[in-house]
Design brief:
Helix content: 10-25%
CATH architecture: 4-Layer Sandwich
Largest sheet: 5 strands, mixed
CATH superfamily: Ribonuclease Z/Hydroxyacylglutathione hydrolase-like
CATH class: Alpha Beta
CATH topology: Metallo-beta-lactamase, Chain A
Radius of gyration: 17 Å
Distance between the termini: 21 Å
Bound molecules: zinc ion
Number of domains: 1
Number of strands: 12
């Protein structure tokens, strides 16, 4: 999440936040290129880009304490790319948002091979089935724990009382189509794309996506930037 939505971070804006630790897929304006010199020759160097979708209004008339219309926070979607193929992290929520992401993927010129979700909140996976219809070479993945949470949020009664109440007729049909990847690892052109389970973040059974070869962590909702974290599911142990 970032404070000011900005679209289509160019490849030249790839940022390495730490040279020794993890790199977070946050949209910042720093600029250094990932060092591909250490890659074995058979492994294609990867890159990534982040699309930030603008906040959208809730349909209900409830206001913020300041008397303003309530808005759903910006949504960050990440595309990890190799020479020809790509992995999408965290498809968005509404039909319109998902259509924008589909066009963004097509504009990358890469073949989408996988759609992965970091956790089970609908704004990180409701667009998955719609994207699979558009990109038939792709499969959807999440951890077994995240899939449990997806089923909870995708349950018709719960969805109607929460997600569809906030955004009526905006969210596509969203059957749970993700499956666990063997060992929670995918491969993208010789590079590992790893689910790392982190327990409760802004919901239970969350994960982050780690791509060791480029020091990338796509942090999902483990990290918020410039927005108040969603704490409604926090228990006494949080
Ligand atoms: Zn979340």
């Amino acid at each position: 999440m970032v404070r000011k939505p900005s679209h289509h971070l160019p490849w030249s804006k790839l940022v390495r936040l730490s040279t020794v630790g993890l790199t977070l897929a946050l949209a910042t304006t720093g600029c250094t290129h990932a060092n591909a010199a250490s890659q074995p020759p058979t492994v294609a160097p990867l890159s990534y880009r982040v699309l930030i979708l603008d906040p959208i209004p809730f349909a209900d008339p409830e206001k913020t304490p300041e008397g303003e219309a309530r808005m759903f926070q910006p949504i960050a979607v990440t595309l990890i790319t190799g020479k020809t193929d790509a992995v999408l992290v965290d498809p968005p929520m509404t039909r319109e948002q998902t259509e924008a992401v589909a066009k963004w993927i097509e504009g990358s010129g890469k073949r989408l091979r996988a759609i992965v979700s970091t956790h089970g909140h609908g704004d990180h996976w409701f667009g998955t089935a719609m994207l699979l219809g558009r990109f038939p070479d792709a499969k959807a993945y999440a951890t077994a724990g995240t899939i449990e949470v997806m089923r909870f949020h995708g349950n018709p009664e719960f969805r109607a009382a929460t997600w569809d109440k906030g955004f009526p007729r905006q969210i596509p049909d969203a059957p749970v189509v993700s499956t666990p990847a063997p060992g929670n690892v995918l491969e993208l052109e010789g590079n590992e794309v790893r689910f790392v389970e982190v327990g409760h973040s802004d919901t239970d059974k969350s994960s982050v996506i780690h791509v060791p070869s480029i020091g990338l962590v796509v942090a999902g909702d483990v990290v918020y930037n410039g927005y108040h974290q969603y704490l409604a599911e926090s228990g006494t142990r949080a």
